[in-house]
């Protein structure tokens, strides 16, 4: 995901510069598409991170319950 995010950021920056230098609806829509793709990747990464944290907490809590018994 990190590589994809870096690539999207680089493409987004290039598209931003092109949009500012040569205003065109095509470049603007491409820029918006890249930004939305980046937001989707960010949301997926956050969802995975939260799922891993929840699983880690469940495993820790199970271990605590076994130790207390």
Residue fraction in strands = under 5%
Helix content: over 70%
Radius of gyration: 20 Å
Please give the largest β-sheet. Answer: none
- Overall pLDDT level: 87
Rough outline: rod-shaped
Taking the alpha carbons of the first and last residues, their distance comes to: 41 Å
Helix run count: 2
Q: Tally the beta strands.
A: 0
Q: What's the order of the H and E elements?
A: HH
Give the helix/strand class. mainly alpha
What does this structure look like?
The protein is mainly alpha-helical and 69 residues long. It is 93% helix and 0% strand. Helix 1 (2-21) packs antiparallel against helix 2 (25-68). The longest helix has 44 residues, at 25-68. 3% of the residues are buried. The model has no long low-confidence stretch (mean pLDDT 87).
Question: What does the secondary structure layout of this molecule look like, with pairings?
Answer:
Layout lengths: L1 H20 L3 H44 L1
Q: Tags for this entry?
A:
93% helix, rod-shaped, 69 residues, mainly alpha
How is this structure best summarized?
It contains 2 helices and no strands. It has helices at 2-21, 25-68.
């Amino acid at each position: 995901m990190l590589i994809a995010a870096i690539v999207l950021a680089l493409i987004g920056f290039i598209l931003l510069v092109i949009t500012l230098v040569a205003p065109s609806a095509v470049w603007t829509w491409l820029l918006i598409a890249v930004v939305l793709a980046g937001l989707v990747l960010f949301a997926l990464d956050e969802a995975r991170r939260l799922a891993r944290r929840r699983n880690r907490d469940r495993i820790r809590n199970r271990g605590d319950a076994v130790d207390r018994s």
